[in-house]
Amino acid sequence: MLLAEPDRIIVCPGVYDGISARLALRAGFDALYMTGAGTSMSRIGMADLGLATATEMKENAEMISGLDPSIPVIADADTGYGAAINVARTVAGYIRAGVAGLHLEDQVVTKRCGHLAGKELVSKEEYLTRIRAAVKTRERMGSDIVIIARTDALASLGLDEAISRLTAAVDAGADVAFLEAITKREEVKALKEAFKERGTPLMYGMVQGSKALKMTPAEAKDLGFKIIIYAALCLAPMYMAITQALEVLKASGDCEKYDPEVKPHDMFDACGMQELLSFDLEVSSVARKGAL
User: Fold this and answer.
1) Closest Cα to residue 199, out of 2, 1, 3?
2) Could you tell me if 163 and 180 are in contact, meaning their C-beta atoms sit under 8 angstroms apart?
3) pLDDT tens-place string over residues 38-65
4) Domains (range + CATH), the chain
5) Can you tell me whether residue 67 is helix, strand or coil?
């Protein structure tokens, strides 16, 4: 388990569909993060305002996790999508989908992206009910899925309440603490101090273009984080590149003016074409030999 390696920080690029996951795997990352915002935008074409359903999120997580089961995937599970029994169903679905870890947050069910203003939170007790439901489901299913407690309380309720929620969630059985939307090093210091004696791994969400405190994996490790996720890492260049390609085509009528060096075969190879052809050839050869 990567969490057990003492001098390591787990770096997870945010992926949201098959090709972004394939490219991250080809780049050699040891873990992936399925972004909820990316899932919502790519699956249903809607902003991250709690519109993607538990089923849509689970199916996307299952597809990404299945591309290479040896590479662990952390998946956004939002609020768990309802009351405790809904959370239990969500966690069970993620376990069956092959997800290695998931995070649950303390926003209301009609949530929004963690880096947007105007977030509403449930009570601390309701949040802990979600965590307990996840932990109990894991126990019942004999799973080792990592439960990550996320709080969005920093902006609206303050640092002390946010840390109080996370410590209570860890006491309830969560494995990792995730304080969303950190903007100051003082907040990192307080978070680290709160979990020093517990030895709880900490996760950091680095969202480029947001107000999040900017840091590299090395800096995050030095500050005491065990996991760092880059949720928008694939989304931002996708948005920019596709926008530019469409603008060029619209203005000039020439699709080759935008990066003509990329060939269809390059993309097919990134998505496993050679492996698929080799497999097809192997089984076809076996079938021919069996017919002789």
Assistant:
1) 3
2) no
3) 999 999 999 999 899 999 999 999 999 9
4) 2-238 (3.20.20.60), 262-291 (no CATH)
5) helix
